[in-house]
């Protein structure tokens, strides 16, 4: 876990050396199994920005049913001062089958991230795309992430997804700014981003 901060510092030094105006913050995507085992002193090391406020929680995608203790894990983290940001919620099969469960997690203080790539293209991803759009319509999305793993195949480009949100949902530039800037900044600052136009 300590390696996350060290590597982030190395990358920031390289960016600064080349005068790239970008600030990189540490963080980790934590599996549900690992989240169950985290000790209190470990929590700040894996939260977003290492500020101890939000933990990016990765749920199993392809299981028919999420573990029964999911809500308990989220509640226990909350009692320890850490809120959950559910990673790529649109890819979780069980949440797609039972969106009300995600709604209950949000009502309990969790927040939700979706992945930009899920909003573009059809074919085998069409069900995922429809669910992501449904979550946006409900006001249940608090962060649009690139889920970048490389510069080409999974690069950090949000523009195609933003185009989909404009075309399919008619979101204004201010609403899109909230999704990609204001809400993530609020979470880094430890505040709960409330969706002002949420319909559900």
Task: Quickly list its features.
200 residues, alpha/beta, TIM Barrel, five-stranded parallel sheet, 9 helices, 45% helix, globular
What percentage of residues falls in helices of 4 or more residues?
40-55%
What is the structural class?
A: alpha/beta
- How many helix segments? 9
Sheet bearing the most strands, described? 5 strands, parallel
Broad CATH class: Alpha Beta
- CATH topology category name: TIM Barrel
Number of strands: 5
**Gap from first CA to last CA:** 37 Å
Write the element-wise H/E pattern from the N-terminal end onward: HEHHEHEHHEHEHH
Poorly predicted tracts of residues? none
The CATH H-level homologous superfamily: Metal-dependent hydrolases
Share of β-strand residues: 5-15%
Average pLDDT score: 89
Domain count: the total is 1
- Overall, the morphology is globular
Give the strand order of the largest sheet, numbering strands 1, 2, ... along the chain: 1-2-3-4-5
- The CATH level-2 architecture is identified as Alpha-Beta Barrel
Could you tell me the radius of gyration in angstroms?
Answer: 17 Å
């Amino acid at each position: 876990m300590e390696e996350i901060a060290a590597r982030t510092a190395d990358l920031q030094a390289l960016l600064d050396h080349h005068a790239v105006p970008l600030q990189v913050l540490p963080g980790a995507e934590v599996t549900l199994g690992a989240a169950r085992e985290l000790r209190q002193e470990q929590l700040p090391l894996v939260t977003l920005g290492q500020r101890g406020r939000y933990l990016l929680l990765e749920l199993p995608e392809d299981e028919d049913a999420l573990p029964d203790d999911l809500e308990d894990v989220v509640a226990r983290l909350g009692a320890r001062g850490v809120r959950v940001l559910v990673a790529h919620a649109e890819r979780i099969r069980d949440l797609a089958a039972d969106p009300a469960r995600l709604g209950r997690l949000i009502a309990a203080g969790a927040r939700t991230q979706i992945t930009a790539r899920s909003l573009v293209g059809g074919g085998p991803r069409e069900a995922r795309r429809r669910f992501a759009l449904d979550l946006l319509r409900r006001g249940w999305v608090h962060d649009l992430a690139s889920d970048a793993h490389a510069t080409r195949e999974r690069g950090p480009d949000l523009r195609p997804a933003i185009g989909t949100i404009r075309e399919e949902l008619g979101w204004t530039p201010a609403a899109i700014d909230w999704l990609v800037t204001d809400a993530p900044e609020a979470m880094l600052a430890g505040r709960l981003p409330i969706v002002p136009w949420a319909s559900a």
